[in-house]
Amino acid sequence: MAGIHIENSWDVADVAGAILTYRFDNNQILGNSGDGIYLNHVVSGTTALDGLTISNQFTGNTVQGNSARGIEVLTGLSTSSTDATISDVTLATTFTDNIIGGADAANGSDGIRVSTMVYSEGDTSAVSGVALTHTFINNSSIGNSGSGIVDENLRIDTYGTDSALTASTLGSYLDGNTLTYNTANGYLQESIEAQTWASSLIDDVVITADIRNNDFSDNEQHGFHNEQYAVRSYYYSTTSNSGLDITFDNNTIQNNGYNGIYFDTDGRGGDNTWMNYSITNNVISGNGANGSQYSVYAGLYMYIDPSNAGEIDKTLFLQGNTITNNIGDGVEVYVNGDDTDDFAGDFGGGALESTGGNTF
Question: Residue 309, SS3?
């Protein structure tokens, strides 16, 4: 059983316009036979939703020795009929100054798992003005029997025809966290995606990932593992004025069993679309010891795999990094697609005005 277990299920009509805040401050959550804290919000219905804020806040908690995850937070919002639009929604989960696991106090699975999802299923059910954020500041998640943090889902999907996705943002922010000695990854991000699935346009949708001043070291798998950043419309729909901005600055990524950093990003091109990566002032060394002759791991591995690649401006900027003594390559970058002319990389030579300072 969890130390704290909260489940909510609301109809969209009952929470339209609501501002809901859940705070967990300065608690000790120790030695429970399930999760330390389990929080699950489900909002669903068949009518339009205009206006909703849900804020989940975890500050100064000590969560140790629980047999499952330390903290698990799930937030889901969906509509399932024609004309059931979603607009003016903010869903935010923030972790600050929490101690998760530790020497002789590991949790039995991931230290933190968090998922936030918004989707509309019906035709003519557009999504607009949605802001989703996951924020992690000055937490320690150490020695857990899983990953330190699993940033499982941060995503918006529309499935119906004529169900555009517009004027929305998805943000993942990590600053000052210590994610070390976990039996899987330091940080695992499974899916930060904004997608339309049935010939519906995407316009003015931006994913931001800002990762600064963290320690992702001594984990048995990857230090930082991103499985998918993507802004894309399927079935030849239009994507415009949308993209990815990824900043990775002043982090320490050392002695992880697999890659130090692993990025896998996707997107669909169109007018004014972009994929920008800035990797600066990091120490990336000694990674890859758990590989084999068939799996040789790098310090920094990037797989950039857009559709309509010639229509997406792609930049990769490296400056001031120390990338040394990794078992495989220091840096591996793969850029796929039908046209790579719109890719610009600067590994310190100045093509994007880098001042250099990398050590490989």
Answer: helix
